Amino acid sequence: MKGKFETAVFLIGGSVILDGFDGTVARLTKTESNFGVQLDSLVDAVTFGLVPAAMIYKWGFQFADPSIGKVLAFIFLTAGVVRLARFNVLKEAHAVPSNIFVGLPIPLGALAICSAVLMMGKPLETQSEMLIFSFYVVLIALLMVSTIKYRTMKKIRSRNNLLILLSLAILIAFAINYPRHAIPVMALLYIISPIFFFFWGKLSRNKQTPVPTETVPGKGEESD
Questions:
Q1: Could you say which architecture CATH assigns to the domain 5-208?
Q2: Is the pTM of this model over 0.70?
Q3: CB-side exposure of 131: number of CA atoms within 13 Å?
Q4: What's the pLDDT band for 86 if we cut at 50, 70, 90?
Q5: Do residues 101 and 147 touch, judged by C-beta distance below 8 A?
Q6: How far apart are CA 73 and CA 53, in angstroms?
Q7: Nearest to residue 107, comparing CAs of 157, 45, 194, 28?
Q8: What is the pLDDT of residues 132-169, one digit of tens each?
Q9: Contact 183, 115 (CB under 8 A)
Q10: Of 116, 127, 161, 223, which sits 20 to 30 A from 99 (CA to CA)?
């Protein structure tokens, strides 16, 4: 709220990293509980919902129409909270595999907002910028409440494990040395990742489809 938007972005980015480890720590220390699940959702709602919503309002619309900023901030926050509630319900019912997220995860929704802040730099001033940003916020909100399936790193089985580890190492090095560019690039790649997995799955199914072999004519059969 003091206008230190870039600092807020990197703090949110650090929170995303920590959010990726809380479940692992709970499993390793054997402290998993339903209370922890609900508390995690509450923290996520504040860190990845309320804070980016405040950034949408303060960074995007403080110089123009604050009323529009309030509406868009509320839309983003509502979509994020609904996304978290649906995640808890599906997890408790074991309705989807543990390596699948239904809808864009709220931490990535927060990073998507952070990406716009990093790319644009200074707060928005022109009407055209605010219009584009408004559509962008609504799009991210819709992705969070959509039924689009996103993959996680769990249950990844590949013959190219070394290639995956190398790719992760390159991404980490890129993020450490170029944080202003790393957050937008990684957020964008994850947002469009369902398209990649769709075509990858289609290609894999085509490779697994057996090719019909020609019948070898036997005795008493005439060949063409």
A1: Up-down Bundle (1.20)
A2: yes
A3: 3
A4: very high
A5: no
A6: 4
A7: 45
A8: 999 999 999 999 999 999 987 665 555 556 777 787 78
A9: yes
A10: 116
Domain locations along the chain: 5-208
Per-residue H/E/C for the chain = CCCCHHHHHHHHHHHHHHHHHHHHHHHHCCCCCHHHHHHHHHHHHHHHHHHHHHHHHHHHHCCCCHHHHHHHHHHHHHHHHHHHHHHHHHHHHCCCCCCEEECCCHHHHHHHHHHHHHHHCCCCCCHHHHHHHHHHHHHHHHHHHCCCEEECCCCCCCCCHHHHHHHHHHHHHHHHHCHHHHHHHHHHHHHCHHHHHHHHHHHHHHHHCCCCCCCCCCCCCCCC
Q: How far apart are CA 176 and CA 46, in angstroms?
A: 26
CA 175 to chain centre: 16
**What single-letter amino acid sits at 33?**
S
Which tokens sit at 175? 């993020």
Sequence letter at residue 4: K
Task: Please answer whether residues 61 and 130 qualify as being in contact, where contact means their C-beta atoms are separated by less than 8 angstroms.
Answer: yes
